Amino acid sequence: MRTDRNKSSWADAPVPVVGVTGPDDGLRSAWAGALARATAGVLLTADRFHADVDALPRTARLLAHVPAPAPTLVVVEVGAEHSMLDVIGECTDPQTGVRLMAAVLVADPDEAVARLDVGDARSVALLDAVEACTHHALTPGSDAALAVLAALQPTAVRVEGLPHLLGGPGTPLGLDGAERILGPLTELGAERDEAGWVRVLNDEWQPPAPLTGAACRPGHVTVFRHERTRPLHSRRWEALAHRWGGRVSEGVGLRVAGLCRIGTHPAATLRWDQAGRHLGLHVLAEDSLEVEPLAEGEPVPEPLCLGHDLAVFAWGEGWDEAAMRAELDAAAVTDEEFLAGPDAW
Description:
By secondary structure, the protein is of the alpha/beta class. It is 35% helix and 23% strand.
């Protein structure tokens, strides 16, 4: 006898997915495999998932025809050089036929923090994972490293241990089992706002639990928002970014992210994206040079920012918030430069 689920299309009965990523191949693979075994889920290994672009939608189509009420769950292992943001985008595409229920970062906290400013593909993907994942499955680590990860993603659920140990005897199968291990889950959308820097710019960042006691001693984790209406002078901005990056060493780190305008791109809103010595600058929006008539009642579009709006995270000894703010102010264009026009800055 065919059930309603059999009759519906695979896109109408999306299969629950949990994504698992991390910089250590062995640790990540072991955790993903343990989660799949504990929940009787289907495991897509990193090699299989990244080698076959149709692996996930094909798996979803097959599982959509499993007779109800059989539990289903797909555990997707995401390789260390691949961004979890891309996977979130794929899983939230209705055509894929899945619903993403959790994104899990598996890592040694001290090794993860030490890798953030390396600048290679793995460290860039790691930063994406730290800031985008809903769950952090962390091995034992120092209070300092745990505080940094909690600051960069303050809403992440902390998970300790392997899934088969967390679930305990009689762990339910499928999504129910994943919730026994990870806690209550809700479907994730394409727009993510968990990243600490996004929450800082939205005035929603609150010190998470690990930012207490010794880990929150003066000079260890500094978090602040810096907003000004003046653009940044291109040469002074570049000198500042490299000067700050040059202070990074063992136990000392930096994360700067946010919106800005810089003299080299006077007609664009840019994203300052820096992790330690690794510096990125990305165009988010170009100012329109054409004035198009607006429909009656339609609001006039506003630029994303006029000057700069930044979230700054600094950890370890040697950082001072007041001094950093003064350096940012000094990097902005002066009144004389502003009046002279973009060619002067």
